[in-house]
Design brief:
377 residues; alpha/beta; TIM Barrel; Lyase, Ornithine Decarboxylase, Chain A, domain 1; 2 domains; nine-stranded parallel sheet; six-stranded antiparallel β-barrel; 25% strand; EC 5.1.1.1
């Protein structure tokens, strides 16, 4: 059974006609399969990371599809509240914690767990009396040098949390900068940082890459919480292994349609700037997708798409609403044929590499103009 999944905020937008043939098919069974891989590798609980609108797949839809997950991780209180307002009752941790005292109030009212990254967040909490205690995770900077406190400075915050009757320290966490390299050496310094202190609570250290490799298992116990993210969506978190090699299944298949075909003569150019030139007479297909939909403008000539089982190549720059594809070798391709941009036949990690980016960005930058179509299996 296939149905359109609404990810829009207003009823008026969700009910508008959507006849443009550009959509992302989301396979929820594959999402659950990928979560089970992560869960099987985790020594303790596994919180599914569904921040940034579920990496472009739909935050509420992802939470509903993963209804039996141990919990969810989001970036901000706004995202957590979207889950609560949709009736999601599973545990939710907010990875950036509270931005202000009002968000401490929301966390208390809605049973949200907050990450504490700096002392000022605790000062904000002290500005009000909470109706219910809030569970907190303390973030340690183990080498990313982005957010979190240094390990040798953590005890002062632990003491402040312990002294506050309205807070409960649940976990100490960190985020690895180099887990994607998939080697012991890449994580050695970070693991040493986390081993340098005696922590009063279990740890949450493993992201997608560390979950799959088990390289941080020395830090984990049955009370630990892993945080699988990109692996859930069928993209490899490791530099040296593909999604298929890891047993991950494709969740999003981005498709559109051929809307125009014309012949081209040898020597003629295609697209803005004319940076693709036909070497011989042939045919060009125009496909209804562009950077206005989130398809990457930096996709170079030769980037593959799949049409009627044929692997074809971009010819010319990506426009806002259209791409042009060389179909000279395939006479059977016609107007109306379906086109896969990435998914079951075209590896999203391949497209990302050609665009000098990562699958995370490709998923997240899809615009609301791209309909999400839900399917099971």
């Amino acid at each position: 059974m296939i149905s359109t999944v609404s990810q829009t905020a207003s009823a008026a937008t969700s009910k508008q006609l959507t006849t443009r043939p550009t959509y992302a098919r989301i396979n929820w069974a594959n999402l659950r399969s990928n979560y089970q891989i992560a869960k099987a590798q985790a020594p303790g609980a596994a919180y599914a990371v569904i921040k940034a609108n579920g990496y472009g797949h739909g935050i509420v839809a992802c939470a509903r599809a993963l209804g039996e997950a141990d919990g969810f991780a989001v970036a901000c209180v706004d995202e957590a509240m979207a889950l609560r307002q949709a009736g999601i009752k599973r545990p939710v941790v907010v990875l950036q914690g509270a931005y202000c005292s009002k968000e401490w109030q929301l966390a208390s009212d809605n049973d949200l767990q907050l990450v504490v990254q700096h002392p000022q967040q605790l000062q904000q909490r002290a500005e009000l009396v909470l109706p219910n205690p809030v569970a907190v995770w303390l973030k340690i900077n183990s080498g990313m040098n982005r957010v979190g406190v240094r390990a040798d400075e953590a005890q002062a915050l632990i003491d402040l949390i312990d002294a506050d009757e309205q807070l409960q320290l649940r976990l100490v966490m960190t985020h690895f900068a180099d887990a994607d390299q998939g080697s012991d050496a890449a994580l050695a310094d970070a693991i040493q940082v986390m081993q340098s202190q005696s922590w009063p609570v279990p740890l949450s250290v493993s992201n997608s890459a560390a979950t799959l490799t088990g390289l941080a298992s020395v830090l984990e116990t049955s009370d630990s919480v892993s945080r699988p993210g990109i692996l859930l969506y069928g993209s490899s978190p490791l530099l040296n292994q593909s999604a298929a090699e890891l047993g991950l299944k494709t969740v999003m298949t981005l498709t559109s349609q051929v809307i125009h075909i014309h012949t081209i003569k040898a020597g003629e150019k295609v697209g803005y700037g004319g940076d693709w030139t036909a070497e011989k007479d042939g045919r060009i297909a125009v496909v209804a997708i562009g950077y206005g939909d989130g398809y990457p403008r930096q996709a170079p000539n030769g980037t593959p798409v799949m049409i009627n089982g044929h692997r074809c190549a971009l010819a010319g720059r990506v426009s806002m609403d259209m791409i042009t594809v060389d179909i000279s070798a395939h006479d059977d391709i016609q107007i109306g044929d379906a086109v896969e941009l990435w998914g079951e036949q075209i590896d999203v990690d391949d497209i990302a590499a050609r665009c000098n980016t990562i699958a995370y960005e490709l998923f997240c930058q899809l615009t609301p103009r791209v309909k999400r179509i839900a399917a099971e299996g």
